[in-house]
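Loading example: each entry is read as two labelled lines plus one structure line.
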Amino acid sequence: QKEVEQDPGPLSVPEGAIVSLNCTYSNSAFQYFMWYRQYSRKGPELLMYTYSSGNKEDGRFTAQVDKSSKYISLFIRDSQPSDSATYLCAMSEDDKIIFGKGTRLHILP
Amino acid sequence: GAVVSQHPSWVICKSGTSVKIECRSLDFQATTMFWYRQFPKQSLMLMATSNEGSKATYEQGVEKDKFLINHASLTLSTLTVTSAHPEDSSFYICSAPDFSSRVYEQFFGPGTRLTVL
């Protein structure tokens, strides 16, 4: 079993819809949970991070962590065509980051 | 936020040649930098940790003699792919944590696409 599992998609939703992206993990020692956005042929950029169970909101983005279920989610409200990208979940223990495969998201105008 | 640059952004080379990729932190010092490799539709896989003033540490399965890493200064790390082969074609990305060194504040470079013919 891989440490981090993420459905690669692609996921296509109409503009304005709520997007839900998810990852599961197996290593209970992970301390930090992050979401990165990566545009084609670019490096990833950090969207959100958290280190505790619960919700964290930043504008249209909400990150959710459930450590008991080893499950994290990213919600995007009022999705825009500019949100079209690959979203990678990532987790860390110490100084190493383990990435999910990434979910390709297409927001249809 | 902090900026990390990579050079070149893309490179095409013949099989058997060596290719050097540079990673620079532009407005902060980085005693540690990380090198990742990303194959199409795959996740970023950590290859090695570059440490200024000491040897790099490699992840299991990564050949240290093939992927030479030199952390020449507090703002520059280089990755040299020696005797490159078509299977080394990939997207190579570096990252560096800023002065706070909290892992979630790593800044990623734009990546270098390597194609080996």
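Chain A touches chain B through 24 residues (CB under 8 Å).
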